[in-house]
Amino acid sequence: MSKAEQSLRESVRKKYAEIATAGDSCCGPTCCSTNQSETGEFSIIGDAYDGVDGYVANADLGLGCGLPVEYAGLEPGDTVLDLGAGAGLDSFVARREVGETGQIIGVDMTPEMIHKARENTDTLGYTNVEFRLGEIESLPVESDSIDVAISNCVLNLVPNKKTAFDEIYRTLKPGGHFCISDIVASQALPDWTMKVAELYVGCVAGAMPKDKYLELISHAGFENVEIKAERRIDIPDDVIAELATEKQISAARASDLHVVSVTITGRKPRVISVS
Amino acid sequence: MSNRERVTAVSEKNSPQGVTQQSDESIVDPKLLELLVCPLTKTRLIYNAQTKELISKAAGVAFPIRKGIPLMTPDAARQLDGDEK
């Protein structure tokens, strides 16, 4: 891993440790979360699980950007891998779908998040939901063992997305599938965005252009790749004004540069062709 | 059936694919160890009940289990000493 990747990873870990410890919902462009929230702050979240079966308020830190479980087509008994599980919200909603006979494995690289997820699991009394500290680019998960991989607003924060999708592919059973909500960009983001740490940990600067993101998924070997939900996110002028110069902002507006939250599914082929 | 027997029985019937329990003394929830492999080499792990660690012989490192959570990142791993390998 390059020094730049390591440094980005550390910024993300630090920010999310703060969020886990504070126990607050995450608002502002400085972490992964949009829309004007009740407090008037900006956050990337548009959809919410509240009201959905299996919703756990204590696990909802306001960090998602879609509802991957809604489109994941989970079946009772499925083994589910939650990538970047955070405090466990998507895992718990998924647990509701897979039932007693299923199994949920949550992986997150931030110790504070994993501990919170574990506390929530103990409170709920689930015996088939477990969490482990790990990184998405090197998953501590058996190959060909997962029915469905889910993830909510996390992969944009992973410096090496190619390795991440290769790992997802490796862990899925043949015929298994993923359902991932994430942030992508309308086009390549200008270099200056990567220098603004707040925009990276805020799920903006790490957003890959949508076409490149889909290409990466196909190159990993997935088939039947489909966008299930898509929503344009406009970052308000007053928010971006604090992070960029006027010239940078007007160039971005002129080219209609924006980010989009997407929920994507894709399947690992049942029979893998050897070429 | 004692607890230990139960764990052993479950281990045999529903064997964790990537983990070998080192001895009968290693009372750890088999569910926790299911489908768990070394993140570096993707190979089997051996649970050491005394140190509460998961040993990856292939990578030459040990991953700790803290408060029931396996810490499977390179940062958390301990390099094995010569005689542990």
Task: Characterize the structure shown.
The complex is a heterodimer of chains A (275) and B (85). By secondary structure, chain A is an alpha/beta fold. In chain A, 33% of the residues lie in helices and 21% in strands. Chain A has helices at residues 3-22, 68-71, 89-98, 111-124, 161-171, 191-194, 197-201, 210-219, 237-241, 246-254; strands spanning 79-83, 103-108, 129-133, 146-152, 172-185, 208-209, 223-233, 259-267. In chain A, strands 1, 2, 3, 4, 5, 6, 7 and 8 form an eight-stranded mixed β-sheet that branches. In chain A, α4 links the parallel β2 (103-108) and β3 (129-133). In chain A, α1 (3-22) runs parallel beside α4. The longest helix of chain A is centred in the N-terminal third of the chain and has 20 residues, at 3-22. The radius of gyration of chain A is 18 Å and the shape is globular. The two termini of chain A are 29 Å apart. In chain B, 18% of the residues lie in helices and 25% in strands. Residues 1-16 and 22-27 of chain B have low confidence and may be disordered. Chain B contains two helices and six strands; from the N terminus they run αβαβββββ. Chain B is globular and about 30 Å long. Chain B has helices at residues 3-13, 30-33; strands at residues 19-21, 45-48, 53-56, 61-66, 69-70, 78-79. Chain B is an alpha+beta fold and 85 residues long. In chain B, strands 1, 2, 3, 4, 5 and 6 form a six-stranded mixed β-sheet that branches. The chains are: A alpha/beta (275), B alpha+beta (85). Chain A binds chain B through residues 79, 103, 105, 109, 111, 114-115, 118, 127-128, 130-135, 138-143, 145-146, 170, and chain B through 17-18, 31-32, 34-40, 42, 63, 67-74, 76.
Subunit organisation of the chains: heterodimer
Name of the CATH superfamily of chain A: Vaccinia Virus protein VP39
Going by helix content, strand content and strand pairing, the class of chain B is alpha+beta
Low-confidence stretches of chain A at least 5 residues in length (pLDDT < 50)?
25-30, 34-41
The biggest beta sheet of chain A reads: 8 strands, mixed
Query: Helix proportion of residues of chain B, in percent?
Result: 10-25%
H and E string of chain A: HHEHEHEEHEHHEHEHHE
Going by CATH, the architecture of chain A would be: 3-Layer(aba) Sandwich
Proportion of beta-strand residues of chain A: 15-25%
The geometry of chain A reads as globular
Percent range for helical residues of chain A?
Answer: 25-40%
CATH class of chain A: Alpha Beta
> Could you say which overall geometry of chain B the principal axes of the C-alpha atoms support?
globular
Q: Report the average pLDDT across residues of chain A.
A: 87
Number of domains of chain A: 1
Q: In sequence order, what are the helices and strands of chain B, one letter per element? A: HEHEEEEE
Look at the structure and give the mean pLDDT of chain B. 74
Low-confidence parts of chain B lasting 5 or more residues at pLDDT below 50? 1-16, 22-27
Number of strands of chain A: 8
